Every structure is written in structure tokens, then in C-alpha cells.
Amino acid sequence: MQVFSQKEAWHWYFGNGVALDFSNGNIKAVNDGQLYTNEGSASVSDKDGRLLFYSDGVSVWNKDHRLIADGLNGANSSTQSCIIIKKTGSETLYYLFTIDELAGPKGLSYSVIDMKQNNGSGVVIIKNKLLLTPTSEKLTAIRHSNGKAWWVIVHQWNSSAFYCYMLDANGISAPVISNVGVVHKDNGNGKNASSIGYIKGSPDGTKLASVICYVPNNNIELFDFNNTTGVLSTPVNLPSPGNAYGTCFSPDGTKLYVSYESMGRGIVQYDLTVSEIAKSGVRVSDMDSTRYGAMQIGPDERIYVAKLGQFLDVISNPNKTAMNCGFRRNQVDLKGMYSTFGLPDFFILDYSNIKVNLGNDTVVCEKSYMLDAKNSGASYKWSTGEKEQRITITRTGTYWVIVNKNGQTVTDTVKIKFRKPIVLELGRDTVICGDMYPIDAGNSGLGYRWSSGASSQVFVAKETGNYSVTVTDGICSKTDNVKVTFGNVANPFIPTKEFDPGNGGLNSHFDYILNGVTWFNLKIRNKRGKVVFETDDRSKKWNGYQDGKEVPAGNYIWELKYKTACTRDQINEQRGVVIVN
Q1: What's the mean pLDDT in 44-60?
Q2: Which domains, and CATH codes, for the chain?
Q3: Sheet holding 408-418, edge to edge
Q4: How many helices (H) and strands (E) does the chain have?
Q5: How far apart are CA 95 and CA 81, in angstroms?
Q6: pLDDT at 5
Q7: Residue 550's Cα: distance from chain center in Å?
């Protein structure tokens, strides 16, 4: 069962006159926008998807694209110049929060717009009320755990403090201040450019990501967010060599995407389900010179990516891993209009809506299977009586779950059928001292496919290699592999006959191949019998030097002692001559 997000985000206004309409289910570019901005913007529609107004943080245009306010405290070159939030309990009052650029003196302010006035076209009834200064160019909102109020979040400049203001039916409360993570400050150029960069909350309201542009290495941070208390904690640094700018969580909250304005990193996905998140980063875009900006989830739950030009890129399946997330270039044609670095700063999208999808009816070929109801922070009731987000089942049956979050309840059902698992064990990697080794996959009467192409139950290996087989009963399959090493070899040591130390890399050392050798000791002697080189390390080869000096040309004796897997503790010996030119 799926519950769709509200329609407040059906109309987007951003960039240089760009407007997108999601209202008919297919994204469409239109040319009625009056907004021209380098970066941030915001727009909002009513609950039925009809446009109400939009802003660049300085000016406000209504549904008829007429100017209803100007001179607001935002800046059209501020990363997240403004965000719009409907007041709890009201159908007509909207708060427009604005943020100044480059840690300027106007900081975080708010204005209030009453859409009931002026025949429904809107009037600004409160303008430029200052809340905090100076701040970074970061501004977002996260739904309160009660499903009604909002947390408006900014970061103080020259500080490590996040300020979280609760907006509810009573208005704006005093901020909750969390001193956590790095200090946001000038990076040394005197321009406050490191105030640039996004913050975004996860759809379930439990995480917040922060990006500081133009600061290498620890410029991306991930925090836990308590959407009941407004407290941030547990910072995780995601080191980065480039100039990160935008960030966006996947709709299911399991992935974090980061976009790079420069330094050629493109777009990187982090997996938030692993223990070492910082090591999970995988680039999903091309490695090119594209200057990427904001990223935003659309009403269709795809992520749209801003870049300079007349197209947007799209991540079609953002909940999936990097290889399968469906990043596509130039997927939205802006019809001659020009995208800059920004996209509308939505969290007016009602992510308190929940959805549950246990997947399709499934045949399980293992002994157990995990069902996941997702929706972190919700309450759960399973048909098994369990109350956890995830349960592990072992029996065939029909399973259902009821999920309740923020006063909403949804359910889903799935049928799981267990089949008898295929047991396949080829054994441990082995050393063979004969000339052949039969490998039996067992499971008589089933289908077989060996890595060699053979289709029999038993495969006879005759040379060293890794051998794998897949056994199938037509529905379930199992794969295993084994490494077989043949220890009896005709030529355990194959050396070069001559080399030239001054040959610049080509045949410039005494090279050799060891076959089936488990231990060795190699010595090189000159004509007087003095050892000039000795090693038991396969990676170290004689380069024709002794005590830092090249040896005289001539014949040198090599002496090899070695053991093989088949001779076990027996030490074998070989001698020979190598010519140094």
C-alpha cells in the first residue's frame, strides 16, 4: 500500500525563469515564471496542487505572477535563500523564512503571508522579523514527531551551533541550540565563501546532513536529529576532496546523495545502512566538469539535480544502490530556460505520510527470510505478534503488518513460500599431488552449470584454478566454489638467463616464476663465491647491484632451495647461471 505525499510541491520555480509543473503526473516545463535567481528559491501550492506563490528570498510573486512583496531579508545568491511553511492549524497563513548570503547581517528572518487577503492573491502581513544573525547560507525544516509542528533549522556563523526553532499553532518558539560538529567560519579568503552549502533532513526526520562548500576533507557531516526535542547529536564526518554543494536523502532514508559544484566529483551516494558510512561513497555520475547544484525529491519520489544549463539530471531510483539508482543526464528539458545552482527548498512535502511495501509474493530458497516494514520511528504490529520494524520468518504463510506513525495507519500483506534449500558444499581449497581431481556437486538429478561450461554432477579438474558450480532445481539455485592447486609441477623455478641492470626497466633485473612453491631461499654468488644478493620474498628481485653499486658484467651463480606442497618438509635444491650484461 502506498500513501502519496501532498500536492504542495506540484509547482517549482527556480533558476532563470524556470518553472516545472508536476500536476498531471508527468513533469512539464512552462514559461510563466518571473523569478530569476542564482541559487535558492521556494514555491508552494495548496492542498489540491494549485499554485499559491513563490519567492527568491527577496521578492514574492503570487499565483498570477504578480509581485506582492519585495525587499525581504534573503538573497538570490544564498544557497537556501528561503523556505515556506504553512502555520499549524491554519489554511491561509504561511511563514516565509529567509537567509542572507555569505553570513551577511540580515541572517535568519521571517515574514508572514496571508493568502485569505487580496481576493486570495495574498498579502504580506509581517515582514523581515529577525531571528538570528549571522548565519551560514543553510536553511531547512523537519517535521516534528507530533506530525503537526515543524523544526526550522539554521547554523550560526563563527560557531558550531545549530539553531532549531519550533513553529506550531502558537507561532515560533525559542531556539533549541546544539553545539555539535565543526565550526562554520571563513576559510581564510575573507569572503565567507564557506558559508555556502546545503543542509537537509531525512524524510523520517531522524537525520540531518550538512555540506560546507570550499572546505576540503571534513566538509560533509551527518547527524542524528531528535525530532521531538530538536537536538542534533552524533556527528559523522564524510571526508571529501572536492567542493561539495548540495545534498539529499533518498525517500526511504537509506541513502545520502552529495553533489559537487567543482573539483570533478559529480554526484556521490553514501549507504546509511552500513557501519562505516564514510567508506561507502560511490560516484553515480560521470567524472566530468559539470558544475552541480541543488538536489530535490520530486512528488514522484525521483531526485532532480540542478546544474548550469538548459537541462536537469535525474536519479530515477534513489532508494537503490549506486549501480542501480538510475542516474540519467539531461532528463528534463527546460525548453530554453536556464537552470542555475538552486531548486525550490521544499520540506513542505508531507513526509509524515507513510507507505509500506513488503514486496511481491515470494518463494524463499533459504532457511529464513527477513521482512522490513521500514518507516523508522513508527509503531508496528505484525501478524506474528512481533512489534519490531524487521522480523525474521522461517515458515510458509501469509504475513501482514500494521504501521502507525504521526496518527496515520497503513498496512500491507505478503505471501512467503519456503522451499527446501539446496545444500551445496564443494569443500575447502585443496592441494592435489596427482594429475586429476574429481569435484562432486552432489544433489543428484538437479541441473548443474560449472564455470568451465560443463553440466555434469561431477567435474574432473586437471589443472590449477578456481572452479565454481551453480546447482538449480528450476526455481531455487545455489552456488559454491573451490580452489584446486596441483602441487606436482615440472618446472617449479623458471628464471631469466640474462639481464641488463642499466636497461631502464626492460629486462633490468633477474626475474623468475615460482610454480607450486610454498617456501624458498634464493642466493646469488659472484665468481669468488661471495653472496651478492639473498631473498625469501617473491616480490624482491635482484637488480644487479651490490652495496648500492652495479656489479661487473659476467656470469653469476644462483642457488635455490625450496619446498612444495607435495614434497612437504623436503628441501629441494637447484643451481644455475645468470649473465649480467
Answers
A1: 95
A2: 11-333 (2.130.10.10), 362-418 (no CATH), 430-486 (no CATH), 493-580 (2.60.40)
A3: 362-364, 408-418, 397-405, 379-382
A4: 0, 49
A5: 14
A6: 44
A7: 52
